[in-house]
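Query structure, 225 tokens:
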């Protein structure tokens, strides 16, 4: 839903001030004060926009943003006192759509939120599509030829990673880093091979090619719509 916003900010007064301003404009705001709370909200709600501080009591907001980007098409705006060029660049590189340095005006934040709403992601950006395959990002459901396709969590994460990197060769190391290591799971390369094999079997297609000595390639184009 386009009006659902997750606000991850550990400063209680700032969190409340931002929430009240956004709610006044008609947005539905879910407040979190740590990453653990934010993760629980992301599991239950179809979040359209994540507004996140970077320095949080239980972790780094950018790292959380990277995880969100793997499984959701939600926009991300970072809020931070870190105002060096390298900090801002890191924010965008971690999947952020905007980066606002503290202190800031609530009107500026609201303007940026409204701009994202006007922009949209193609359609509403909630669907990743390639050939006869669709991943509905808001619900993480997969359809092939408009029929539901049941995948395990890792198979689904792997599929999303391939679609987001369609027509690009990705190495086993990159897949491990994005699909497993990001959750603190350390596995060997054989796990990647086995999971890809299972995914290919369920997709019943040869769209995933093994490029000997280099990695894997999703051979078709993929789009958001």
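Result returned for the query:
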């Amino acid at each position: 839903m386009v009006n659902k916003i997750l606000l991850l900010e550990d400063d209680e007064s700032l969190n409340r001030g931002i929430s009240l301003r956004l709610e006044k404009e008609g947005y539905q705001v879910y407040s979190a004060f740590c990453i653990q709370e934010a993760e629980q909200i992301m599991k239950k709600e179809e979040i359209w926009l994540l507004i996140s501080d970077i320095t949080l009591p239980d972790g780094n907001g950018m790292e959380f943003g990277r995880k969100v980007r793997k499984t959701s098409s939600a926009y991300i705006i970072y809020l931070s006192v870190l105002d060096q060029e390298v900090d801002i660049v890191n924010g965008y590189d971690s999947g952020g759509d905007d980066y606002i340095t503290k202190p800031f005006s609530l009107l500026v934040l609201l303007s940026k939120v409204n701009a994202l709403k006007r922009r949209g992601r193609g359609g509403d950006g909630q669907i990743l599509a390639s050939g006869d395959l669709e991943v509905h990002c808001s619900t993480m459901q997969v359809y092939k030829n408009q029929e539901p396709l049941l995948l395990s969590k890792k198979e689904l994460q792997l599929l999303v990673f391939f679609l987001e990197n369609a027509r690009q060769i990705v190495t086993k190391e990159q897949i491990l880093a994005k699909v497993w290591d990001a959750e603190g799971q350390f596995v060997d390369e054989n796990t990647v091979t086995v999971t890809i094999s299972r995914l290919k079997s369920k997709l019943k297609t040869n769209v995933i090619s093994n490029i000997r000595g280099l990695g894997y390639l999703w051979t078709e184009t993929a789009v958001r719509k």
